Amino acid sequence: MGKAKIHRLGDLQLQIMRILWDRGEATVAQVLEGLGDIGLAYTTIATMLRKMEGRGLVSHRTEGRSFIYRARVKADDVSHRMANQLVDRLFEGSLFDAVNHLLTTREVSRDELSRIERLIAEKRKSS
Questions:
Q1: Are residues 64 and 47 in the same domain?
Q2: DSSP secondary structure letter of residue 127
Q3: Which one has a higher pLDDT value, 42 or 8?
Q4: pLDDT of 6
Q5: Is residue 6 situated within a structural domain?
Q6: What distance in Å separates the CA atoms of residue 12 and residue 47, rounded to the nearest whole number?
Q7: Residue 8: what pLDDT?
Q8: What pTM did the predictor assign?
Q9: Handedness of CA 55, 57, 63, 67 (dihedral sign)
Q10: Which of 62, 82, 107 is nearest to 18 (CA)?
């Protein structure tokens, strides 16, 4: 996969990327179907995919009269960069403040807390 610079993905772009990551590749019609009934036109999705291709996020191949798109960036790379941007922009780089905010403003199950505690314990061992 390419090393495209990922600025920020809007909600629609992220939804499109998730469809491509899940399916491997998809036509514009398949992406539109995967988005469900959100009221967007085929041409809107085609335009968005062309713009995303210009940014290096997706690529396409031609099969007959259809363009078949696939992601050029990995889901993990996108989530890593977007999460870092979030922490940097909203919490001035403070991981503590970001985690504190999430733990105090969201419902957290006992299972999730246990998993978080295990991650912290593993991080302590490796530091």
A1: yes
A2: -
A3: 42
A4: 54
A5: no
A6: 12
A7: 73
A8: 0.79
A9: negative
A10: 82
Given a cut of 60, whether residue 55 has pLDDT beyond it is yes
CB 57 within 8 A of CB 6: yes
Total domains present in the chain:
2
**C-alpha span between 102 and 76 (Å, rounded):** 20
* Cα–Cα distance measured from residue 77 to residue 3, given in angstroms and rounded to the nearest whole number: 9
The residue behind tokens 């960069």 is 81
Whether residue 24 is found in the same domain as residue 52: yes
Predicted confidence (pLDDT) per residue in 26-48, tens digit: 999 999 999 998 899 999 999 99
Residue 5 inside a domain? The answer is no
Statement to judge: residues 86 and 39 lie in one domain: no
Residue 1 domain-assigned (yes or no): no
Domain residues for 86? 76-126
What is the C-alpha to C-alpha distance for residues 88 and 77, in angstroms, rounded to an integer? 16
User: Is the pLDDT at 12 greater than 90, yes or no?
Assistant: yes
| Pair of tokens at residue 45 | 């999705």
Q: Which of the pair, 78 or 1, is modelled with greater confidence? A: 78
Query: Would residue 15 count as lying in a domain?
Result: yes
Rounded to 5 degrees, what angle do the CA atoms 2, 47, 6 make? 30
